[in-house]
């Protein structure tokens, strides 16, 4: 087992990883930027090392600084958390060449998952269907036109290196396809230094449903059910839940089995997520694999009674999975609410600053994953998530009741947060009925 793990992240996930290490009896090294010197997880870490100035490129994205910190502290593994270097194949390679275990999949697997076209082709070979579209990259406007005529409009142009919706364009007809093709290419080139795009039939009002997988280094792969992440705003997830309120047991089993087939075909190791779009006729289509632990992993932990960070560490150390597919039961209903330091009434503009009074939500069915405390100043240098409220009850209805109570308890005087927005969402009849799609927030909760 590892002796000492370096946590290459900040905020709530740094604290979450530290807790898993403590539970396993593993020593921790916390790294931080100058803006994070008052971060909560530093207090609990065995060693703390400043790795640079506030901007991420000078600290949490600075590979030489992080590797130097790991060498100085004699860490034998690095957990990257999410974001930052978590899906950076080069970083995974550097770790390996320095004899430090990267807690995540091997570099070639990260690379294949990062290339959406390669991942889609691998999925197809494993019998996991993606959205009908081009078979591989589309290089010219003419080629795009031919594919679109074949699959029919509307179509979506997507960047092969994409993610977060960047480099995506919908086209409803031939003229808009021509414009969209070039727009998507230049956006992809600017964002990812890779202009490669591909085409898919545009699925109207889909739900985003993703399967959590866990794979050891011995070829064992299990899935831990799904998360519904349909509630998003500008490709930022706001609320996630498990199980998906509209998925029937047969579709769930089929999606889980598809995710496991794909993970096996990819030689996947570690925790990962297979993303699908679910259309209004219950068809599901593979879209992406995320080769990291995700923000929303706690909803899966609650319904499966697991600790995914702990399992990630164990499989990275070479342990076999301690449970099989038949041991995994989904119990009850969990929801996660991302509490961001943002003002939902003013276009979600960031609201950093000092938290003068803080009272965390608590009580039956409530989990609060956060690094904030009374007197903490939310820095303006990073993303605005300051905590995750996770609720777990026997039924979705009870989970919603507990969530409303917990959201009212949460007190963060001094900054604006998204907590109030969630209280309004919980009261919406479509949400109560589980009838949401990826356009819900923009339709009802974005002032125009
Ligand atoms: C789609 C789609 C409709 N049709 N693909 C957005 C980010 C990327 N992960 C995939 N995305 C989408 N792909 C086809 N063929 C609609 C979206 C999409 C979306 C997906 C999930 C959650 C929110 C979304 C918001 C807008 C568009």
CATH architecture annotation of the largest domain: 2-Layer Sandwich
Q: Provide the spatial order of strands within the biggest beta sheet.
A: 13-12-9-10-11-14-21-19
**Based on helices, strands and strand pairing, what is the structural class?**
alpha+beta
Described by the principal axes of the CA atoms, the overall outline is globular
Q: Structurally, how many domains make up the residues? A: 3
The unique ligands bound to this protein are: ligand MV4
CATH class of the largest domain: Alpha Beta
| Head-to-tail CA distance between termini | 54 Å
Number of strands: 22
User: Could you give me the name of the CATH homologous superfamily of the largest domain?
Assistant: ATP-grasp fold, B domain
- As for the CATH topology of the largest domain, it is D-amino Acid Aminotransferase, Chain A, domain 1
The count of helical stretches stands at: 15
